[in-house]
Give the backbone structure.
Amino acid sequence: MVTYENPVIKGYNPDPSVCRAGEDYYLVTSSFEYFPGVPIYHSKNLSNWTPIGHCLTRKEQLILDSARPSGGIYAPTIRHRGGLFYMTTTNVSHRGNFIVTAKDPAGPWSDPVWIGQGGIDPDLFFDDDGTVYFTSTASTDGKTGISLCTLHPETLEQRTESVFLTGGGGGRFAEAPHLYKKDGFYYLLLAEGGTEFGHMVTIFRSHSVAGPYEPCPHNPILSHRGANAQYNPIQCTGHADLFEDHNGRWWLAALAVRPLPGVMLHNLGRETFLAPVVWDRDGWPVVGENGTISLAMSGPLPAAPRKRDDSFADDFSSDKQNYLYIRNPEPARYIRDPQSKTLTLRGSGTALREAAGEPPTFLGIRQVEFDMTAQAEVTVTADGGKGGLVAYYGPDYHYAVYLTRFGGVTYVRTVRRVHDLEVKSERIPLYGDTATLRIITGKDCYKLYYLDESGVAVELARGATAGLCTEGTAAMTFTGTLLGMFAERGEVAFGVFSVDDLGK
Ligand code: 6LW
């Protein structure tokens, strides 16, 4: 038994799904309105996960033109069978459920095969007799819950009508179905209660894949709904996937949140957590510490955990896997110059607050810890230019420090937007066209700075962390805060972009 740190993947990485190929483990999460879609992580020890790419990297696979904030790509499932990787997910903003495949999980992945059965949270289960089962939260015969159909093993096209399986164990929103087979039983794992503080994982089993399914006597097998946020630093545990490691040990990957201390608010998004699983003598799974998980967890990892480094730095000399773009980006607006180690962004005229149409020129990484510093040297030389650094949760929830130039003078300024309230600071003229901009994130607030001519950090404004939290958004959202670079108009050049973990 070794101790490892939870979450195993920090920052917004919800709805985790895992598959194994030999002694290699691959994990995917949801990506919503961001491009590329469905990040894929690799691990050998289940504690350290390395981003190796994305399943959806081409417009043919991922159309996000009409994706609203937290629209787009919902929960994915990844499976490995016969040397081929399969990933199924839902684009709620374009045509629904589909499957892509790949020989190499780092890509390229195929074009989508679209599936008729509706709903969200699609799952794939390959039975011993070669039958391919597809489940999702589709309602059938007027019954709300989980439905199942079969697919053609080669073409993956739907081949049978959907049949209703179960409505779950009584919690609201039965979702996140995953089918498994073990010791002659078909097990159906679900999430219930909704993805907030009442979230839970339940499991059912049957000797026939079409049911009827009996509930586990100790459901929910994972939930922190009873644990007061004041005391438990992990909340909203749910939406999970079970898997067996190459030593025959079982694990559960699940989403959960680290709320701000003492309040039911979270700005980092739903992250990926890991718990060991044992099977009791009646053949039911017992997760973690009697159905709960902790930040310091112990379990029979396949290999020892390595120390993690949450800092990030990019001198633009190579292509990084970590960046997210809003909806479908226009590549011509992003000019990386490895020689000069600069990135030039061309504004599209679209402001950060605009939720539709051509996306703003923006790229960012997930904020993975509460206390971080994001920094970059920024230059605006031509009149009309406007851009800088931003802590971005969405078009109506962001704090930015930026340069703007007109009348031959470059100014530094900030904007804080929460809902439709937008506050801009006074313009401060710079001596030159360049300034180092900095955002310091914290549990209470985000601080916006620029470094003056003598390198002194001047604080320009503060925005409450509560303003970038999922619970405060007017419409339901599912993401987390990103730290990034943007340009609204003209050309904006960036030197090294770094994000450091102040807590390490
Ligand atoms: C996910 C579903 C859910 O597909 O939220 O609240 C969706 N539950 O399981 C997006 O994460």
Summary: The chain has no helices and 41 strands.
